[in-house]
Design brief:
eight-stranded mixed beta sheet, globular, Rossmann fold, 37% helix, 11 helices, 272 residues, alpha/beta
């Protein structure tokens, strides 16, 4: 057993450098993604959770060249690649599924794939994280490829025991490898009313395994509920509500409106 003085000395010398999100509001609120922590992105379907992952992967793996692993549960590798292309190359097709076969975008896609091959980005189908072989394979993969951050899209929170076990295993990987893991989770599909649609801690109280996560962020797309103005008169067109539900043991009530175009166009800042 290691003496506590050695452990303290080792911990005090460790450098803790978070990976920033590149979104000012989030970086101010949570300070970025910290090693060993899980950041959970929660919300209903079509609330831009996967779009957020695409935005972050492009920024972190492609622009900043940080070794990144993406674990897909329900999205196919093909759809994920299509989404990467449409976001990074600012393509607006009728369907992302048409991009890879389109003659119109053939040159753009080929150029993007050539660039993508030079990036430290890895995409794997996963699921059943509680399976020991899957768990060991992921940990070995992290070591072999010097992975610095993992994105998991998308874990379904159906209150079942397998969901709890999966998230527990994902948390163990974050701690064992001392890297941040960002998980998107589908929750609350039956909220009613403008105030109640915003995610809140009541939604998570029945899901005790969420409470162990360091940062919990709620996404709400009001337009899917046909709501275009909030009770303060703010225009809800083209925005998602982002709320920090949990921040390293602290509870926050503030929320922020984030333009969807930030998550759908790589040159959004240049356009604006």
């Amino acid at each position: 057993m290691e003496h506590i003085s050695k452990i303290i000395d080792k911990v005090s010398k460790q450098e803790i450098t978070p990976i920033d999100t590149g979104i000012t509001y989030l970086d101010t609120a949570i300070g970025g993604y910290y090693p060993g922590e899980i950041t959970t992105i929660c919300g209903d379907e079509c609330c831009c959770k996967t779009a957020f992952v695409i935005h972050q992967v492009c920024r972190i793996a492609i622009d900043k060249k940080i070794p990144t692993l993406v674990l897909l549960d329900y999205t196919s590798e093909r759809d994920f690649l299509s989404s990467l292309v449409t976001y990074y190359c600012n393509i607006e097709p009728d369907s992302i599924h048409q991009v890879l076969e389109s003659e119109e975008y053939k040159e753009i896609v080929n150029d993007f794939f050539c660039r993508l091959k030079e990036c430290p980005l890895y995409i794997r189908r996963a699921g059943w994280y509680e399976d020991k072989k899957t768990f060991d394979d992921i940990e070995n993969f992290v070591d072999e490829n010097n992975i610095k951050i993992i994105f998991v899209d998308e874990v379904m929170l159906d209150l079942g025991p397998y969901d709890a076990a999966s998230l527990s295993c994902i948390g163990t990987i974050a701690l064992n490898k001392n890297i941040p893991i960002v998980v998107t989770c589908y929750v609350w599909s039956d909220r009613l009313g403008i105030e109640d649609i915003r995610p809140c801690l009541i939604d998570l109280s029945r899901r005790s395994y969420i409470h162990g996560h360091d940062v919990v962020i709620g996404f709400t797309n009001y337009e899917q509920y046909w709501m275009y103005e909030d009770n303060r008169g703010n225009d809800l067109h083209g925005v998602i509500c982002v709320e920090i539900l949990k921040y390293r043991g602290k509870i926050k009530e503030k929320y922020h409106y984030l333009p969807k175009d930030i998550l759908f166009f790589h040159d959004y800042e240049e356009k604006n």
